Amino acid sequence: MIENDLLRILTGGWVAQATSVAAKIGLPDALSAGPSNAAALSRGLGVDSRALARLLRLLTAAGLLEENGEAYTLTEMGALLRRENLGPLAALYGSDYFMASWAALEHSVTTGEQAFTHVYGTPVFDFLAGRPDRSGEFNAGMAAGTLFFRRVPDVHDFTGARSVVDVGGGTGALLAEILRRAPHTRGVLFDVPDVIATAGHALEDVADRCHLVGGDMFASVPGDGDAYLLSRILHDWDDEQCATILRNIAQAMPRGAKLLVIERVVSADALLPAAFDLHMMVMTGGRERTLPELRALLTRAGLTPASVTDLPLGLRLLTAVLETS
Ligand SMILES: C[S@@+](CC[C@H](N)C(=O)[O-])C[C@H]1O[C@@H](n2cnc3c(N)ncnc32)[C@H](O)[C@@H]1O
């Protein structure tokens, strides 16, 4: 029924928040040990058993859990909410500052301004810079994208690269995946100084081949890489800011070097990129882009767009080269 379809849309935020809370309290990890009931789970998690029973019922209806008798197990989708998988991302999406920004969506739609700055008085990356706990939660959420990180060295061969520079590389989880698969390649993790100060853990096993550099990509980026990564960066910024980042990279790249851009690509009927596009409008003032828009940004910076490859989670990998002549 069409009314039920509409109600499902209207209550979608509640289901998302319930899912986020389940991840925050560690429910998916508690269920990894095997089937359990509300009473046992509530004791282990230190939460109210009757409230948990109601949360379990909703998560079951949403397809994240299965109930057999009184015992619950994770479905295949529910298992993705464990801490080593998408759990930190689920927790981040339900965080107070994400929710408060979305609550101000009307401000964004009315004015075209980012809601986050309207609510908190400062852009989101400046807000995170002074708050190690929030920044840790944000970086853990970003690093939880390992589903697609692991695929990057499958779809692009880095073994011939002397050096890979990950611009805005966060914790270095993606760079670590690449360096593990390219044993003779060196890596440079570049991000704002606060993030670099706490990065490194993800890169422990490749630390001898990786250099951590703090800086500002709007000023300059490290030179001399023969592959540059920009993973989920361009969507944070407007076209002029993207032009500055890409110009700085093009200036740092030796001739023949490659740039790899990872983004969601907007298309006419795709819900996920459209949802993330609004999320960017609310949180950062950036946007998700169509393929022609991304290619135009690359061309404007003097780069030549090359291949496009699909990645998990609805992401795409675009390559561009700095021509040799
Ligand atoms: C959406 S996260 C993406 C992180 C990572 N590339 C990934 O795909 O998981 C954006 C990253 O850009 C970094 N960043 C923001 N402003 C920056 C700047 N001015 N210079 C360098 N990095 C910056 C943030 O600290 C954050 O790590």
Question: In terms of structural class, how would the helical and strand content be classed?
Answer: alpha/beta
Instruction: State the separation between the terminal residues, measured CA to CA.
Output: 61 Å
The Cα radius of gyration reads 21 Å
Could you describe the largest sheet, including whether it forms a barrel? 7 strands, mixed
Q: Output the strand order for the largest sheet.
A: 5-4-3-6-7-9-8
Which strand-content bin applies to the residues? 15-25%
Fourth CATH level, the homologous superfamily of the largest domain: Vaccinia Virus protein VP39
Helix content: 40-55%
InterPro entries: COMT-like (IPR016461), COMT_C (IPR001077), COMT_dimerisation (IPR012967), SAM-dependent_MTases_sf (IPR029063), WH-like_DNA-bd_sf (IPR036388), WH_DNA-bd_sf (IPR036390)
Protein name: Methyltransferase
GO molecular function, one term: methyltransferase activity
Keywords: Methyltransferase, S-adenosyl-L-methionine, Transferase
Quick synopsis:
It comes from Nonomuraea typhae. By secondary structure, the chain is of the alpha/beta class.
Walkthrough of the structure:
By secondary structure, the chain is of the alpha/beta class. It has two domains: 2-80, Winged helix-like DNA-binding domain superfamily/Winged helix DNA-binding domain (Arc Repressor Mutant, subunit A, Orthogonal Bundle), CATH 1.10.10; 143-321, Rossmann fold (3-Layer(aba) Sandwich). It contains 19 helices and nine strands. The strands form two sheets. The chain has a seven-stranded mixed sheet with strand order 5-4-3-6-7-9-8. It has a two-stranded antiparallel sheet with strand order 1-2. Helix 15 (173-181) links the parallel strand 3 (163-167) and strand 4. The relative contact order is 0.09. The chain binds S-adenosylmethionine. Residues 125, 142, 145, 168-170, 174, 191-192, 195, 216-218, 231-233, 236 line the site of S-adenosylmethionine.
